[in-house]
Design brief:
This protein is an alpha+beta fold. The chain has 6 helices and 8 strands, in the order αβαββββααβαβαβ. The protein is globular, with a radius of gyration of 19 Å.
Length: 194
């Protein structure tokens, strides 16, 4: 009887703990949500850069949690997110910044197509590039750093996914081109994990 009581208590308390850890009321406008994916492009991103495969910007309006992000399917878009169907890791900037200006810049990019070539300044945007472009200081300098991109796995090989991806785009792999990725962003000293 005792094991059954422990099991029932655990099952009953699990949603409460989940809700407390991921309650959108603890999030603030301007927080960043980092996601992990292990399929398709997500697997290839993990192989080349680290665990995080996607990043999104939080906007709260009343009781609704919105994110602004860039995805292959929708380009740059703003949409509600359900924390019951996703499991993001939440990060917050450790410095003061103009949240309204960041969100305004992000919203001005809604409708831009997704940048599947991962190139800077080409009229298209990928997820971490969106974050890089909208977080600026008071004189217009980027708060986050870009660096030469790496598409290779830990063994130094170019994963088949990236070979096929860039071949389909009829372009060389942009190895060494300045850019960003979610895992590198998460390592910024300007961010802290909640």
């Amino acid at each position: 009887m005792r094991p059954l009581a422990i099991l029932l208590t655990t099952l009953l308390l699990t949603p409460i703990v989940w809700g407390q850890q991921h309650d959108h009321r603890t999030m603030e406008r301007g927080d960043l949500l980092f996601f992990e994916d292990t399929a398709g492009m997500g697997f290839a991103v993990r192989e080349s850069t680290g665990n995080y495969t996607h990043v999104a910007l939080v906007e709260t309006v009343g009781d609704t949690l919105w994110i602004i992000d860039a995805t292959p399917r929708h380009g740059v878009s703003r949409h509600p997110i359900s924390l019951e169907t996703s499991n993001p890791t939440i990060y917050r900037l450790t410095i003061s910044f103009d949240t309204a200006a960041v969100l305004t810049r992000a919203k001005s990019l809604i409708g831009q197509p997704y940048d599947d070539a991962f190139l800077p300044d080409n009229g298209k945007i990928y997820c971490s590039e969106l974050i890089y472009e909208v977080f600026l200081d008071s004189v217009g300098n980027h708060l986050f750093k870009s660096k030469p991109m790496n598409w290779r796995n830990k063994d130094g090989n170019l994963p088949e996914y990236w070979q096929n991806h860039f071949k389909a785009l009829d372009m060389p792999v942009p190895e060494g081109v300045s850019g960003t990725n979610p895992t590198d962003l998460s390592r910024s000293p300007l961010l802290r994990k909640l």
